[in-house]
Amino acid sequence: MVNSISKQLAQQIVDTIHDVCGYHINFINTQGKIYASSNPERIETFHEIGRRVAVYGETIEVTSDDDYEGTNKGINIPIYHHKRIIAVVGISGEPTEVRRFAHLAERISNILLHEQELSEEHRNTDEKKLYIIRSLQDGVFDNHAYLNECFDYFKIERGKKYRMVKMEVNTRYNLVNISLLEQHVESLFSTLRGSLYAYIYPNQFVGLISQSTFENNSYMFEKFSKNHSGIVKISVGKLTKLEKCNESWESAETALSSIKNKDSYYVVFDDLTLEILISGLAPGNIDEYRNKILTDIDEEDIEFLKVYYENNMSLTKTSEKLYLHKNTVQQRLKRIYSQSGYDPRNFQDAVLFYLACRL
To answer: Can you give the residue ranges of every domain in the chain?
Structure first.
């Protein structure tokens, strides 16, 4: 029996509803702690009204901000499963405006919880795939006997190492046609021995692939991303033991975040360097850092610096790339120094510029 809504499932519901309505949404556990939110800063904070809803089992509407600890005005609804509260969903905003979205989140939660509780003997092939993927994502193996049965069914070998693959569908893609896209995903994985995938509502396909298969067929994922450019982004996590695939999943998520602002739609975690560090930075800190270093430099000079560092600070290569005289390149570097106070030719200052240009 499902006893709670997992953090990952709650976050997916939050992101889906937030994309629809634009209001901030929180999932709160029965102790009053926010564990999934459209506002990352609120995760792990206490929500007083959420705790009250969990205790008393009734919907509570709040009409003003800051009357209660960690609570803004909005509506907070208990989520019941088998006659017991397992979570609280809260949406910030005027109660009359956000009430329907809170009920939508409640209904989606109940539907997904029901799907998770389909009896084992009636699970079809897709449900077995989903059970494997969910277990590996979360690193939680609550039914070893059934999980091993699923491994045997799909010929997943416990002694081998695997990678998790994340395929994220652009939310602008008509999700009504997701079944058509899944046919292409099915065709891809059907050719890859020692692999499987599952569709994760609303816009993800998550795959598992053995190392040997990936080494021989990695080009197929890159080709798939190019054939579905602008529709699907694909990231491949690091290599791990089967029971540690939650680490591979986390690295796949890190890899995916590194391509949000790039032309490429495919990346392997192993190929990342600086992106591993950058992916963990809060957007506000990134903006503050860029503003501090680049505030006195226009876009043309930023592009100039990118070329300069891409060519390893070589005056000759930079001048050739930009069709400029070497003296002009030197003068431009001096001007940037005088404007910003940071010398792009000095190693320590160059590091600051390089990071700012990469963020």
So the answer is: 7-116, 121-278, 283-358
Per 3-state DSSP, the chain is made up of helix, strand and coil in percentages (nearest 5) of 55, 15, 30
The answer on pLDDT for 38 being more than 70 is yes
Q: Which of 41, 126, 40, 51 is nearest to 90 (CA)?
A: 51
DSSP state of 264: -
CB 186 within 8 A of CB 205: no
Q: Which fold has domain 121-278?
A: Alpha-Beta Plaits (3.30.70)
Q: Which of 238, 229, 237 is nearest to 265 (CA)?
A: 229
Residue 22: both structure tokens together: 């634009």
Structure pTM?
0.54
**E strands within the chain?**
25-28, 34-37, 60-62, 74-81, 84-92, 161-169, 195-200, 204-210, 232-236, 240-241, 266-268
Write out pLDDT tens, residues 272-310: 877 766 766 667 777 888 888 888 888 999 899 989 988
Name the class of domain 7-116: alpha beta
Distance, CA of 80 to CA of 71 (rounded, Å):
21
Architecture of the domain defined by 283-358: Orthogonal Bundle (1.10)
- The mean pLDDT value for 193-214 works out to 92
